[in-house]
Structures are given as structure tokens and as C-alpha cells.
Amino acid sequence: MANEVFEAVRTVLAVREYQDKNVPVDALRRVLEAGHLTASASNKQPWHFVLVTDKNALRELGSLVRTGPYIATAAAALVVAVDKANPLAVSDASRAIQSMILTAWADGVGSNWTGFGGLEGVRQKVGLPDQYDVIAVLPLGYPRRPIGKGKKNRKPFDEVVSHERFGNPLT
Questions:
Q1: For residues 53-91, b (16+ Cβ closer than 10 Å) or e, as one string?
Q2: Residue 135, phi-psi category: left (phi > 0), alpha (psi -120 to 50), beta (remainder)
Q3: For the chain (length 171 residues), average pLDDT per consecutive 10?
Q4: Residue 1 pLDDT
């Protein structure tokens, strides 16, 4: 039986080059809804997402994120911020980020996690209050070139999975 979620997990890859093509508003909204609907510890939802689509703002974000200069060429970007007071916020937001990346991918939209530290300038750029830390900026756009869906460099399955006890292979 086909499983669309597994297929997205199996085939998603980081995308760093984008076509000069807008992503439809309904697809962007679906990506944001995926983050909004993601489970969080005690249902605190200690996150805030800022959608950026303005080309000049995207270029500026690309200059502010050391690990993501290619944000400048994306159709959109999501700034993911967490409430500093919540000790589980990074875990919760990480779950939301993965939900958003997979949802985008299922619509043919590529992304990548950029940032994770040194993003105070991004926080200020998008006007987030001091109670938030930015943990990621997710560029969004259609991949510029075909990428090898499902071809991943991963450790062997039996090296990272055990059954019942460490070292017992899953049969």
C-alpha cells in the first residue's frame, strides 16, 4: 500500500537553488498550516512563523543568514522563532520545521533548514519581540534542476536500528 508521507520522507532532499517562479499562496498556507498543526509538548506551541515573500527582504535575509545565502533567490522564506522561556521550544519547533519541509516537498517545493544560531539580525528584520529567538530560516521555491529523489547517502539500516536490544538486527 502506498504511503504518501513515507514517500515524502524517502525522497526529500535539501534544495539550495531555486527557479525564478512564485509558489502559490495556497501551497505556502498549507506549509504554514503544517507547522501550526504539529504537536508540541503540553500543547504550548512555543513558536511563531513569519512568511517573507518580498524579493528585497529575501535578499536581505540571504545576507543575514551565514548558512543560507541562497535564501536571496528563493520565492519565499519562513522565519521560525521560539519562545525563549520554554525549555522544550527548540524540540517542538524542530518537529514543526520537519512537518513544513515535508509538506512543501509533497507540493514539489524545495527547502532547507538554514541558520540555527547567530540570527538576531533576522529577528530584528522581521520585527519579532525580544521574547523570541530565531532558530531557522526555511527558504522555499521550486528546485532549479532535477534532483535525485530518494538517492541518499545514509548509514546502513542495521547500523542505526536494533530490535529489543542494541545490536540485535531487525528481521
A1: eeeeebebbbebbebbbbbbbbbbbbbbbbbeebeebbe
A2: alpha
A3: 90 96 98 98 97 98 97 98 97 98 97 94 98 98 87 90 94 82
A4: 75
According to DSSP, residue 69 is labeled G
- Would you state the cell numbers that stand for residue 119, as one nine-digit string? 540570527
Element (H, E) at 82: strand 76-83
Q: Which residue type occupies 134?
A: V
Residue ranges of the alpha helices (H) in the chain? 4-11, 25-37, 55-64, 89-106, 120-125, 157-160
The residues pairing with 52 across neighbouring beta strands, listed in sequence order, are 77
Looking at the whole model, is its pTM more than 0.70?
A: yes
Nearest to 5 by CA among 98, 142, 144: 98
Amino acid at 52: V
Which residue's C-alpha cell is 512564485?
22
Radius of gyration, CA atoms only, the chain:
17
- pLDDT, residue 137, reads 98
DSSP letters spanning 132-163 = EEEEEEEEEE-BSS---TT------HHHH--S
